[in-house]
Every structure is written in structure tokens, then in C-alpha cells.
């Protein structure tokens, strides 16, 4: 039975509001036949602010794939270790307690993967297994939880570290006027451990509001009509035993 | 206890010999200070022929990342299904028996991943889990076996399909005269399920030569000083029970 600990989440310092998103979209794409429904859809999502790694003026330039990938690497290396450290602290674990790192990210690509860099940089054991996943989009948060669950079921007493690092603003295509691109430019933000599933989990920890032993179904949806769902059960601290940390258990 | 069945392997139709590799290298890089040791190292590997997806003249051109990635997608889609079907036939399984597809490839990138395409194209169940891994290089063959082992240990009676599809010739950098690039241009070929680990496994099946119940350690080495090893035990067909197929078991 795998137990999920409180996710640590970090978002970058540049903030744009929904109005700051809608205004340039109205200007840049005036006359686009699908603009009115796209704007309505953006507004109706309830997204009020988004965090991005660069000011919006830089984000809307497109210096090319190589420059953006370099920026991804720089920002990921600058931001991920602190988030990982906080997650470890919350779980009362050391880097040397971790058996597998599952790193999901589809908005930048590094070879070797960030998992190799983290292992060397943060002093994880050299035997730590690496599962870097770049191709599951939003569904990767759910997939990461499920693969961690598989690993911890296969190897009892094992600890899995999940990292989701997405800088969606680096994938902004300012000249692409397809409705899908309009929407993704208007909705997605940047964050670490910020995948939908992990963010929803964090809110459960922060805000509570679930009944003890409630069962839930965090789900993530990604490209290629891919979805991953994890069935979990909430367990309060009162029930905590020496083997278990407060969290959502995988059913 | 997970059991590995006979890998099916396919290589493309264009063949170059070691002499056809060495000759252009001698011409193109005459005067390169590290050419003599690089040539010696290539010769000493014992690689005699390599298979590539295009004629060598095309391979040595570099039409850019986008064109090469398009070629990767076209060739992968044209070649992978037959290899998968043969692997399934050898294992006496149907697509509907497969619970997880682990697809490792670092020489081309598709989003959505080939796993999503295969599921739709070949009639795998829509609940099939996807583990696409793009960032473990040569070590990915070993990682794939180990993740399949984890999955089958966590989910008893589950079947995992491993696909390794590498077209290294599409990563040839003709103008890169670094010694690493010289060597990789001179050594790596293209193939499906052709990762070192899986190819070694296939030779065990084809050629035999291991004692019954012998234990072995297929290992793969990749970028970022990454390695994955799988400890297995050979089991002959005589021991085969209704639950087990001939193969190398994970210890």
C-alpha cells in the first residue's frame, strides 16, 4: 500500500492576470473567427492568475527551440532542487532514502535527463532508478503517481520521489492561430510539482475538506487522448502509524 | 516473478560494412588529431555491418531536426507494428492481453508518443498503461526490462510489452568532429527492439549456450553515467509450466 505525502509546489515570480491574457489576445487576434468562443472558454475556466518564468513581453517573443530549451534547463536547474528538498523535508526523508525518481515534463527536453543531474547534484544514491517521462502531457501527473505506486508495490519499503516541472510559457507559439494554441496560450502556466493532479493533492492537504477515509479519483488528461487516474483514500494524521505518513493512499 | 519471452528484432534494409564506415571517416576527417585512435576503437569493437534506414549518402546529409524527426515518425510507424506482432505471436499473446507498453527511444521524438499511436492502431485495450522513455539512451533497454519487472510484480498476471526503436543514423552529425560524435557515427546502427540488452537476450534464445538455470546480468549504459542492470535466470522449455514461457526470469 503506497502512501502519498504532501506535495511541495513552487511557481515562478512573474504573474499575469486573466485580463492581461485576454487583452493581448483580443488585440493580436482581432477578427479571428474562433476568438469569441476561445475568450469565453478562457474566462469560464476560472483561472485568475498565472505564473510564468519570464515577463510576458519576453514570453511572446519566440527566439527558437534551442534558446527556449536552454532557458528550460537553466530555470529547471535553478528551481527544482529547493522544491525537491521541501518535499523530502515534509516526508521526513533524506535524499539517500529515495529509491526511484519519476520526473515528468513535456515543456522542455534535456539529455541526459534532469533525473541524472538531480542524482549527482543533490546526493541521491547512485543506485537510484530514473523514470523520466516527457511524452504524456497533462496526464503525466497521474501516470507518475501510478508508476510510483507500482514501484512501491513491487519493492516494499521503497520510497519514490515524483517531480513534475512544466514551463508551459516556453511552448507559447505566438504566430499559431489555431484554436488549441489560443487556448493553451491563455490557460497554462509554469510551475514545479504543478501538474494538475499534484496541485489538486496539495490543496487537499492545505485546505482539508475531505472526509476521513474518503475515496477520490485524481485524473490527468494528456495528448493522444491519454488519461491516467489514481484511486486513493484519504487518511488523517490520527490514524498515522509508524509505517505511514499522512496522505492519500493508493487503493 | 516476471518472465521474459523471446525478443523479436528487425533491422532496416540498408547495410554498411565497417570498411564503408572507415573509408569516408578517413577522407572527411583526415588530419583530425583523434582520428587514428577513433578508427582503431571502431575496428576493435568487432562491429562488421550496420543497418540503417536510408542509404549512406542520405544519412550523411543533415536536412535539419524537423525533417529527421518526420523521417523517424514515418519509419517507426512503418516498421514497429510488425515487430510488435511477432513478439506477441512468440509469446502467444493478443494485443488485448497487454497491460502496459514500455516504449524506449532516444533517437526521435513524437508527441503524443508512439505508445498512443500503437494502442489506437493495433487494437490494444484503451486501458493499456503507457511508459514512454526518451532520455535514458542505451541504458533504456535495461530500464525497460526492470520497469516491466516492477509492473508485473505489482500487478500479478499482468503482461508488459517492451519496444525499443532506435534509428541512430538520424542523429548523425556530419559536421561535428568531436571524438564522441566520430565514434557514435562509426558504431551505432538502426533497429527495432535492437537495444543492446534486448539484442543480447535474443541471441541467448537463438544460439543457446547458457546452462539451464544460469544467472546472468544484462546491462545497459546510457547518458549521464546512467546504467541499468537486470539480474535474470535462464530456464529451458522443459521446465515450462502453464504459467510460464521459456525465457529469462527476473531474479
Describe this structure in words.
The structure is a homodimer of 251-residue chains. By secondary structure, the first copy, chain A, is of the alpha+beta class. Chain A has one domain (3-250): Peroxisomal Thiolase, Chain A, domain 1 (3-Layer(aba) Sandwich), CATH 3.40.47.10. In chain A, 39% of the residues lie in helices and 20% in strands. Chain A is built from eight helices and twelve strands. Chain A has helices at 18-28, 35-44, 56-60, 65-90, 114-122, 140-154, 179-187, 196-207, and strands at 3-4, 14-17, 49-52, 100-104, 129-133, 160-167, 190-192, 215-216, 219-222, 226-229, 232-235, 247-250. In chain A, the strands form four sheets. The first copy, chain A, has a four-stranded antiparallel β-sheet with strand order 1-12-11-8. A four-stranded mixed β-sheet of chain A has the order 5-4-6-7, sandwiched between helices. In chain A, strand 9 (219-222) and strand 10 (226-229) form a beta hairpin. In chain A, helix 1 (18-28) packs antiparallel against helix 2 (35-44), helix 2 runs parallel beside helix 7 and helix 4 packs across helix 5 (114-122). The longest helix of chain A has 26 residues, at 65-90. The relative contact order of chain A is 0.19. Residues 240-251 of chain A have low confidence and may be disordered. At the A-B interface, helix 5, strand 5 and helix 6 of A face helix 5, strand 5 and helix 6 of B.
Can you tag this structure with a few keywords?
four-stranded mixed β-sheet, globular, Peroxisomal Thiolase, Chain A, domain 1, four-stranded antiparallel β-sheet, homodimer, 251 residues, alpha+beta
Amino acid at each position: 500500500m503506497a502512501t502519498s505525502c504532501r506535495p511541495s509546489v513552487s511557481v515562478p515570480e512573474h504573474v499575469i492576470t486573466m485580463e492581461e491574457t485576454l487583452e493581448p489576445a483580443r488585440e493580436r487576434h482581432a477578427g479571428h473567427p474562433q476568438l469569441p468562443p476561445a475568450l469565453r472558454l478562457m474566462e469560464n475556466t476560472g483561472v485568475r492568475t498565472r505564473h510564468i518564468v519570464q515577463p510576458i513581453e519576453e514570453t511572446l517573443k519566440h527566439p527558437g527551440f534551442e534558446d527556449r530549451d536552454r532557458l528550460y534547463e537553466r530555470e529547471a536547474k535553478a528551481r527544482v532542487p529547493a522544491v525537491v528538498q521541501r518535499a523530502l523535508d515534509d516526508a521526513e526523508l533524506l535524499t539517500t532514502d529515495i529509491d526511484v525518481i519519476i520526473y515528468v515534463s513535456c515543456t522542455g527536453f534535456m539529455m541526459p535527463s534532469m533525473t541524472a543531474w538531480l542524482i549527482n547534484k543533490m546526493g541521491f544514491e547512485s543506485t537510484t532508478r530514473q523514470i523520466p517521462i516527457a511524452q504524456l502531457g497533462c496526464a503525466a501527473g497521474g501516470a507518475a503517481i501510478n508508476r510510483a505506486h507500482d514501484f512501491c508495490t513491487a519493492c516494499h519499503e521503497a520510497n519514490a520521489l515524483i517531480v513534475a516541472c512544466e514551463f508551459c510559457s516556453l511552448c507559447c507559439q505566438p504566430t499559431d492561430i489555431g484554436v488549441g494554441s489560443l487556448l493553451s496560450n491563455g490557460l497554462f502556466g509554469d510551475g514545479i510539482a504543478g501538474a494538475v493532479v499534484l496541485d489538486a493533492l496539495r490543496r487537499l492537504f492545505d485546505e482539508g475538506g475531505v472526509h476521513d477515509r474518503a475515496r477520490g479519483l485524481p485524473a490527468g488528461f494528456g495528448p493522444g487522448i491519454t488519461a491516467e487516474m489514481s484511486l486513493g483514500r484519504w487518511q488523517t494524521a490520527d490514524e498515522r502509524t509508524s509505517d505511514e505518513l499522512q496522505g492519500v493512499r493508493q487503493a
